[in-house]
Design goal:
CATH class: Alpha Beta
Largest sheet: 4 strands, mixed
Number of helices: 3
Helix content: 10-25%
Number of strands: 4
Oligomer: single chain
CATH architecture: 3-Layer(aba) Sandwich
Shape: globular
Strand content: 15-25%
Radius of gyration: 14 Å
Distance between the termini: 18 Å
CATH superfamily: Alpha/Beta hydrolase fold, catalytic domain
Structural class: alpha/beta
Strand order of the largest sheet: 1-2-3-4
């Protein structure tokens, strides 16, 4: 996301910039998330898998916040459904904040996917 923002701030405004990330952690505070939303409106896609705990760290209670654009993959059985989550942080069970309440309730193996049947290895 930092690279996308760096490009957006350095390239002419007529050149499009889009960010697509998988299982990204929070990287800034609410002001940062708001800034990303204004600079890349509708051009941030954060794809988070099922019970992956990485997208909920660092925690919001110490000030970290995601920009808008979460797509949350429901289920990890190969027949997953992708749900668009509204806003920056959304506590519905259909989104990361609601599906994974704590790092300890998550499944680290879900960080690898599957995403449309494809496993990403870190």
């Amino acid at each position: 996301m930092f690279d996308a923002m760096s490009l957006r701030l350095r390239l002419p405004s007529n050149i499009g910039v889009r960010f697509i990330g998988y299982g990204t952690p929070r990287v800034g505070n609410k002001a940062w998330a708001d800034f990303v939303d204004t600079q890349l409106p509708g051009n941030v896609t954060r794809i988070n898998n099922w019970k992956d705990p990485i997208p909920i760290v660092p925690p919001m209670f110490i000030g970290y916040h995601h920009p808008s654009g979460e797509i949350h993959v429901q289920g990890n059985t190969g027949s997953e459904e992708w749900v668009a989550c509204p806003g920056q942080e959304y506590s519905s069970a259909q989104c990361s904040d609601g599906a994974v309440r704590t790092v300890f309730s998550g499944e680290l193996a879900d960080h690898d996917g599957p995403y449309n049947g494809i496993l990403l290895k870190c």
